[in-house]
Amino acid sequence: MEGQEAELAIYVHEKGHFLPFADALAGEGTCGARRHLDPEPLADGRFRVDFHLAHNPYCACNANWSCPITPAENRLQVPIRAGEKVFEAHP
């Protein structure tokens, strides 16, 4: 990404795969805690990761939810400008 190599940890859960991440924009245009996406497994053992499908966790829009900390290995130093951004609360 932007000329830098990146390796991200993908987790398995009961419904498939899960990729939590934070980027250089975290807290400045994107959710401060993290965003996540569901990577698509490919036949060769790799995953298709489409950052356009990144979305905010529930805690981004509801104070009753706690945001887990993004794993250190999934904190990117580059901005990911694709996917869901922060939004303003409406009265």
Which structural class do you get from the secondary structure elements?
mainly beta
Rg measurement, Å: 13 Å
Low-confidence stretches: none
Question: Could you state the order of secondary-structure elements as H and E?
Answer: EEEEE
**Averaged pLDDT:** 81
Termini gap: 38 Å
Task: Give a quick summary of the entry.
With about 90 residues, this protein is mainly beta. The protein has one domain (about 10-75).
Reconstruct the topology from this structure:
Blueprint: E1 11-13, E2 16-21, E3 35-37, E4 40-41, E5 47-48
Antiparallel strand pairs: 1-2, 2-3, 4-5
Give an overview of the whole structure.
The chain has 91 residues and is mainly β. The chain has one domain. Helices cover 0% and strands 18% of the residues. It is built from no helices and five strands. The strands form two sheets. A three-stranded antiparallel β-sheet has the order 1-2-3, with no helix packed on it. Strand 1 and strand 2 form a beta hairpin. It is globular, with a radius of gyration of 13 Å.
Keywords:
globular; 5 strands; two-stranded antiparallel ribbon; mainly beta; 0% helix; 91 residues; single chain
